[in-house]
Amino acid sequence: MTDNTKLTLDRLFNSDDFKLKPFGPVRWLDNDAGYTTLEPAANDEKVKEIARYAIPSGERTVLVTAVQLQPPDTDQPLIIKDYDWSPDKTRLLIFTNTKRVWRLNTRGDYWVLDLENGRLSQLGSNAPESSLMFAKFAPDGQSVAYVRQNNIYVEEISNGAITQLTHDGSEHIINGTSDWAYEEEFKLRDGFCWSPDGQRIAYWQFDTTGIETFYMINNTDSLYPKLIPLPYPKVGTTNAACRVGVVGTSGGETNWFDVPGDSRQHYIPKMEWAASSEQVVIQQLNRLQNQNKLLLGNAANGTTQPILTETDDAWVDLHNDLKWLDDGSAFTWVSERDGWRHLYRVRRDGQEVRLLTPGDYDVISVEKIDSASGWVYFIASPDNPTQRYLYRVGLNGNGRPQRLTPAHQPGSHSYQISPQANWAFHTYSTIDSPPIVSLVSLPKHEQVRILEANESLRNHVDTPILSSTEFFQVEIEEGVMLDGWCMKPPDFDPAKKYPLLFYLYGEPANVTVVDRWINQRHLYHRLLTQHGFVVMSLDNRGTPAPRGRKWRKMVYRQVGILGPDDQTKALKQVLAKRPYLDPNRVGVWGWSGGGSMTLNLLFKYPDIYKTGIAVAAVSDQRYYDTIYQERYMGLPADNEEGFKNGSPITFAHQLQGNLLMIHGTGDDNVHYQAFEAVVNALIKHNKQFSMMAYPNRSHGMREGENTSRHLHELMLNYLLANL
Fold this sequence. Notes:
- There is one protein chain.
- This protein is an alpha+beta fold and 723 residues long.
- The protein starts with 8 loop residues before the first helix and ends with a helix.
- The mean pLDDT is 95.
């Protein structure tokens, strides 16, 4: 009989005890009248139907049944991965049979269901299976555009007529989507958009010619190895050439925008129609990413004019918070120009910039612009950087921000706000409490009903989590406080001595100390406490916490230098103030940037950190991609010492403790090359260590049967044996 008071690897990885139930995907209906969502069919939970819920009554109507989703001459309905409605809600676009492109499933098959006549038709006549990407309705709902094998097409729904808009797509010419580096670092995947009048499509084109090819080897799927070529721009090398153009939806020549500068020494990470069908707004970064030019491009002749330039002595952070106001006469803009990430209202010509969110705090994200009522809704946490709350402020620049999230719900809150900002799907969790999704009214934030309580998960969590996670701060030097959390064993005795394990990331791309449910990783740390470990995490300076520009950008040109120093100073304070921790049994583990931090701590401070597990670590910063590493470190030619002293491999000869390194041989992000390089360095200096290679696994190492369980058991056994 299962002991529900204990966490086990089997319960975590081979059971549904701790399965998080998602809500949605949901789509708001116009006029705030209700929403649609995917729900299991009555007779088959594997099949999803689409239901409509009225607001506020909650009345449910099945809009699309499993029978309607069954293609002709088949006996199985489509499995919906995602869906979208035509503007008039009479047609449904279905994304199914999806395949992964690097990290996400962005290729698949698309079908259109006409609700008026029940006709279900597949898009992309004679296209290979799972070859279409980013299909989207035209503004009038009569046609759909999509990417297929690096070209853009438009297909009429009524008759299936297809018009190919670009013809030069190839292995190296990419239209309507992005290359590897833009996808990974700028999150740019969907690379085209309809004009509001439906007459044009604006799109990105990438030319990867000249980028050196990195080859991965697949040894496991066939009798002989297969080479997987990947154009991957490593630090200081050639980037893809990127440009943006506009093409008519009936075909013809593309009109390319005249964006100044060398296209291989600049980036175009953002582009959209500028609240009209005549102009496109473009964001252009220089290669060092310390200057962002906002340009308006004329769709008719390709000319551009700069309207705003954002600069920073370190780097400029990109954001998705450019929202158009007052029929396009102004837009919202996020900037750190006063030392905090704030929201501004900018006139279309860039001549007037007005601060909307004054104060010593950061705007974390913009959730909704309600132009009709004159409000902008945003996430912030002025008093506690580990938490997240909803605020609103007037778009006229007058008044102070109002907190809408109730004060009695400390933790993290996220929202999906309705078109007219009368309602929101509200997700609330803490580090020890799984998410609850509810429907709330705005601005009073009154709960209408709970939509997903995750009761089964909550019931299983309540038993093994016998004590709450402690949040704390530690002062590493005068006025510099780091946030952290601490988990103790269920039978904690302050008179005993416990081994201490840190879980860290520490790079500018992420934080670990957030009062938010993390699910499996959090529960794995709880499992470690049941084996007698105290587990902690700390966010050093340079992590993207809402603590102001100075905090975040202090790490510029010293990634791998500042972070390990901050972490070690904090550890010394923690050990001094917590006598139950054994200073001779201090360990650390992390993944990706956290793996790099683990190596740096073990190599640079071998007398303090005794055991480490580095998963998918960057051992040498010169091996990583241009966009990420150059953003934070500059170019190798002008920061030679920074690249050297920030790379763990430089200090491999100082290893004294126990080290386990884990890597996937099919990692397209942090290449297996980085693993082999540090292995060679350790061998050269006669340093003993342990290693595990997972064949053909990528950066997340989720592929293959039983991989996650095997990896976490490997780590558990290593910690038990060495810490």
